[in-house]
Amino acid sequence: MLVYKPGKVAIVLQGRQAGKKVVVIKQLDEGTKERPYPHAIVAGIERYPRKVTRTMGAKKLQRRSRVKPFIKVINYSHLFPTRYALELEGLKNSVAAEHFKEPSQREDARKTIKKLFEERYQTGKNKWFFQALRF
Fold first, then answer.
1. Alpha-carbon torsion (51, 52, 56, 61), positive or negative
2. CA distance linking residue 62 with residue 41, whole number of Å
3. Residue 50 and residue 90: Cα distance in Å, rounded?
4. What is the pLDDT tens value at each position of the chain, 135 positions in all?
5. What are phi and psi of 113, to 5 degrees?
6. Res 2: pLDDT
7. Contact (CB, 8 A) for 35 and 27
8. Please, are residues 44 and 9 in contact by the beta-carbon 8 Å criterion?
């Protein structure tokens, strides 16, 4: 499927992260030996940043603008594509299929994604991506 190109924003439909927004990092249309179905490696936001106001102090503002990310391999049938896309200059290199074998590598990948997401949130780019879905 050519719908899920790297950088495409999608919504997870099934599982623990259902209703969360993710960005596709790598798509595997034919599948692999371990996963013989079309799937994608995605990075998403498990806990979105909270609302901030002008009267809040710097420490409170910093604490409220934290992002809790996740990385996951998800079947295409559990993703819902959106019309939005994110530029992926740093995300592409941070997660690979090998990171899912070793927990410490997975943790390092999550930390780099957290840094990238928080940086992007602070600059004010892609505001839609950092707001929780309302339904």
1. positive
2. 29
3. 24
4. 577 888 899 999 999 999 999 999 988 877 778 778 888 889 999 999 998 888 988 899 889 889 999 999 999 999 999 998 888 777 777 777 776 778 888 888 888 889 988 888 888 888 888 888 887
5. -65, -40
6. 72
7. no
8. no
**CB-count burial class (<10 Å; 0-12, 13-18, 19+) for 15:** exposed
Burial 30-39 (b: 16+ CB within 10 A, else e): eeeeeeeeeb
Are 11 and 82 within 8 A, CB to CB? yes
The full 3-state SS of 66-89, as one line of letters, equals: CCEEEEEEEEHHHEEEEEEECCCC
Q: How far apart are CA 92 and CA 122, in angstroms?
A: 20
Structure tokens at 104: 């410490």
Whole-structure pTM value: 0.84
Contact of 26 with 95, CB cutoff 8 Å: yes
- Residue where the block lists tokens 């049938």: 77
Contacts of 53 (CB under 8 A, 6+ apart): none
Amino acid at 88: L
Q: Could you give the 3-state DSSP secondary structure of residue 129?
A: helix
